[in-house]
Specification:
Elements lengths: L2 H11 L16 H11 L4 H11 L2 H8 L9 H13 L5 H14 L3 H12 L8 H13 L5 H10 L3 H11 L1 H5 L16 E2 L3 H8 L2 E6 L3 E8 L11 E5 L24 E12 L4 E2 L2 H4 L8 H7 L2 E11 L2 E2 L5 H11 L22 E3 L3 E3 L2 H13 L4 E6 L13 E4 L5
Parallel strand pairs: 1-12, 7-9
Antiparallel strand pairs: 2-10, 2-11, 3-4, 3-5, 5-6, 5-7, 7-8, 11-12
Helix pairs in contact: 1-10, 2-3, 2-6, 4-7, 5-6, 8-9, 8-10, 12-16
Length: 415
């Protein structure tokens, strides 16, 4: 199996065509699949529906009526057919999906048809996940899980397990995982925080820390690429990835002007999206911020609750991955990327950084090795109506996932 087929096979085993962040979906309902099965094998709709009612699984229905063997289609051929089906849209797309699926099912045997139907309906149920594939790649290379950490580390920076599997298969794990670089438009697994209540224990575990306010918003990684060339509407984009690596840029149409507040051509920024009540000069709570999920009321909520992105980290700039640089190095770069803004001081309920109309605000930080300062900052932020504080080890790089004592959150009052 060549590199191209490895990638396709892995995605099919996971019941998908591409990683979830690319958001390619089939949009085929059970009743549409019933029509495709009936058409493929010249059966009546009622007979297929009756069989479905008895079996409760269209994969088993098609297995019962499909021929034992098909035409011997390759993995790549099946994948391309499925991708074409998923890409159908617009007027008459349902009919085209039915015809294309019928043609595909008619060309494969029992086993293949059963899994094709389940993949398309999102009901594969093999129990596989990206982590299963990562384990399998370690076993492929070493016969055990000994190189799993290295493979998973590469995956966290470039979370396309099909592509990673293809590279490991053809290049070996060392070459495939060495110096993996971030890419604008491809989400990076976010760095997550541990939790501790004792400032003394925090300092003991972490040493010198940067203390930041803890915001209760929506964690968003902004991926920005500036348009190039004479046609300024070509080649650029902005994406907004959640912690689960879904692009929700549609929730934030104002991001189309984010380039006006940035210095750089290609950037990945870690931020917290917060609604701002401009009249009361306070941050909106999480539920108000999340009202943006209502697609058909975006413009209404955009006017009522402006969104501001509080920027606290930079992961990539103009071709250079910054994950390995320490906190202070990244912050210095960040301050040159986002236009500096006035930082408000301690008034209860008032958002820090109150420059009206701005889209981006830098989150402020304070360096300390003193547990007392940590306690004071936590009390101050809670008095402002915020959740608490984040402590970040100044000598740490950006490490995806929740590992070690690099980031710690403190939300409760000290006991």
């Amino acid at each position: 199996m060549d590199k191209d087929e490895v990638e396709k096979a892995v995605n099919l085993l996971l019941g998908q065509l591409v990683p979830s962040y690319k958001e390619v979906v089939f949009n085929i309902a059970d009743q549409v699949m019933v029509s495709a099965i009936a058409k493929a094998f010249d059966k009546s709709l009622e007979s297929v529906k009756s069989s479905y009612r008895k079996k409760g699984d269209l994969g088993n229905v098609v297995y019962e009526i499909a021929p034992d063997k098909g035409k011997g289609m390759s993995v790549a051929e099946v994948y391309e057919s499925l991708y074409q089906i998923a890409s159908e849209e617009g007027g008459g797309s349902v009919e085209r999906k039915v015809s294309a699926m019928a043609g595909l099912l008619a060309g494969v045997g029992k086993e293949s048809s059963r899994f094709i139907v389940r993949i398309t309906l999102g009901k594969l149920r093999l129990g596989f996940s990206d982590k299963t594939i990562i384990d399998a790649l370690s076993y492929l290379e070493k016969g055990d899980k000994s190189v799993r950490p290295e493979i998973e580390g590469a995956y966290q920076v470039l979370p396309d397990v099909g592509l990673l599997a293809a590279r490991v298969k053809t290049e070996g794990w060392e070459k495939a995982t060495r110096n993996v670089k971030a890419e604008v438009g491809v989400p990076i697994m976010p760095m997550l925080a541990q939790r501790l209540k004792s400032p003394a224990e925090m300092i003991k575990k972490m040493g010198k820390v940067a203390v930041e306010p803890k915001l209760d918003g929506l964690r968003i990684a902004i991926h920005f690429k500036r348009p190039f060339g004479k046609a300024q509407d070509k080649g650029g984009f902005v994406k907004a990835f959640t912690r689960n690596m879904h692009d929700v840029a549609w929730m934030f149409p104002e991001l189309n002007r984010v380039g006006d507040e940035l210095s750089g051509n290609e950037l990945i920024l870690d931020t917290e999206a917060m609604g701002v009540d401009e009249q009361r000069m306070r941050l909106a709570d999480f539920q108000v911020t999340m009202s943006r999920r209502r697609k058909h009321q975006i413009e209404e909520f955009r006017t009522k609750i402006p969104i501001r992105f509080y920027v606290f980290d930079i992961l990539y700039k103009d071709g250079k991955t910054l994950l390995g640089q320490d906190y202070l190095q990244r912050r210095k770069l960040l301050e040159g990327v986002v236009r500096p803004v006035r930082q408000a001081q301690g008034k209860r309920g008032k958002p820090f950084g109150g420059a009206q109309g701005k889209l981006l605000e830098l989150v402020e930080y304070k360096l300390t090795e003193d547990p007392e300062v940590v306690s004071e900052e936590n009390a101050r932020r809670r008095n402002e109506g915020l959740e608490g504080i984040m402590l970040k080890k100044v000598g740490s790089g950006y490490v995806p996932g929740r590992t070690g004592w690099r980031w710690v959150k403190m939300k409760e009052a000290e006991e």
